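[Meeting: bench + compute handoff]

Bench side (C.D.) handed over the final construct sequence. Compute side (W.E.) agreed to return the predicted structure before the next meeting so the bench team could plan truncations. Sequence as handed over:
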Amino acid sequence: MNRELPLTQDPSQRAALFDEIQSALEAALQRSLPAGQTALAHALLGQSLTVRAEATADPAEREKLLQTGVEHYTAMAAADSRYKDPAAWRGWGFTLIQIARLNKDQALLTQAIEKLNVVIETQPNDGISRYNIACAQIMLGQTAKALEQIRWCLDHDPQGVFFANVEKDPDLAAVRELPEMKSILTAGRNRMAVARAAEITSQGAAFQRQAETLTNDTAKATGLYYKAIDLYRAAVDLNPNSVRPQFLWAISLVRLSSTATQPADIRRLAQLAREQFARA
């Protein structure tokens, strides 16, 4: 899981971009640079080569690019032992995992974990590094350690980025059907549902507040209340135990009953409001 450099969609533009980056960085390394800048140039070359390798279909060419990337990461550390840029060390670890996957090399997986742990030492909340550590640990057969890393990633994943990867990543196939993994995934789904329900509830509350200000435009207010109710209903579907959307739903029904003009509508909405308050 590498998120360092974005790729343009056009293959020819992508190749030209990487050629330009590589030429500029190699030219920079021909000059006498301070240690930190030399390390930075090697780090950027390493990252560029790794991303280029990901976009390469030829296995031999892919491995060559990855190996060259590792050479630049190694030169980075040699140029300045104090250079601990998280993106660089994260990229180094990721690159080693890719080579290890190609060659079934467990020693490289151990090295990859060491590089990624350098990032964790200074940035313990770096989920990408933790996720890649988990992938390496699974390939090493260190299942319990890997599951703890995955659990951490899903516990700190409000947008569901890691969750989506966990469900389809081939590196996790060996553990995906384990009871412990299923439990982690279930807990992750529940957290995401709760978070999404809270988000939807807030959207509904915004419509409701807007409706409450439209004292002279009943038709528009009514439309907004129904929009709010639709969102509250969706929130409850996601998280049936959430009280807030139930309560706000009932309040919206009360507001609608107060704007209704037909006795039958007033009675119907009032009854729905009472039922909704009971659920809340």
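W.E. noted at the follow-up: Residues 31 and 97 are 32 Å apart (CA to CA). C.D. will use this when planning the next construct.
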